[in-house]
Amino acid sequence: MKWLKRKQDDQPQLSLEQQRAEKLAELGAQLWTSRQEKGLSLEEMVAMTKIPKRLLQAIEEGNINDLPEPIYIQGLIRQFADALGFNGVEFSSQFPVVSVQKKLQPVGETKSIRLLRPFHLYLLYIFVIICSISSLSQLLNNAALKADNESTPSIEQETVVDSQQKPIKSEPVSDLTKDKNNQFVQVGVTLKASSWIRVVADGKTQFEGTLPEGTHRVWKAQEQLTVKTTNAGGVLMSVNQQAAKEMGELGKEEEIKIAAKPQL
User: What is the per-residue pLDDT across 146-156, written as a single tens digit (0 to 9) for each?
Assistant: First the structure.
């Protein structure tokens, strides 16, 4: 019996690093389970805790090698636990930061350790980490908003500008005509109601946007003109200075193509 007792006493104790790894795996599993039960994603936890996703994932997976120093890990666990409804201070205190042997050292040695690593420095480290994480999160949010603003379709921007323009007077017919021996097509539109219009002349877009009621515009082409609108009943179209006619029914989409003819 004495021999068996001696064998049990001789079993190697886990090192501090091993204790931290095992405790991190245990706490991470509890946090993962709680997050799954609440139906929260890691992205939602990032928004709640301001902690980067890779650090939250490392905590849940118990991957201590992807995390900072132990004192920082304890602070991250506390924030994670608070967001899930745990008592963060009590929950994170289970993660060992200082070994038991160091806590049981004589008073003289304990004082020297406190002089080298005072407790208030730990609080300062945690405060710096929280500030850094908050600043990084704000920068990422600003970058995302800027990207969304830059991705606004250019057609919508042109539509807003065009809708604020005043009715445009028609240009003199003499400036739009060519020699009688050349062929061309000329189209004039007058808007009875605000309408979106796209005009393509000889394969190139001459205009695309919304014109307000009362606007009159004229376009010409050497070979073919295509006029498309989403409110055919609100657009009067004249071809080669002929009598203007409605493009179609009010509120209907219509596209008309006119080929050029020789002018005699």
Answer: 776 665 544 44
CB 219 within 8 A of CB 190: no
Please give the biggest Cα pair distance in the chain.
125
Region for residue 139 given its phi and psi (left: phi exceeds 0; alpha: psi -120 to 50; beta: otherwise): alpha
Token code pair at residue 25: 């795996």
This prediction's pTM? 0.36
For 194, left (φ over 0), alpha (ψ -120 to 50), or beta? Answer: beta
User: What backbone phi and psi angles, to 5 degrees, belong to 181?
Assistant: -80, -15
Structure tokens given for 12: 């190697």
- DSSP E strand boundaries for the chain: 183-191, 195-201, 204-211, 216-221, 224-229, 235-239, 245-246, 254-259, 261-262
pLDDT tens, position by position, 57-75: 999 999 999 999 999 999 9
Strand (E) or helix (H) holding 164: none
pLDDT of residue 175: 43
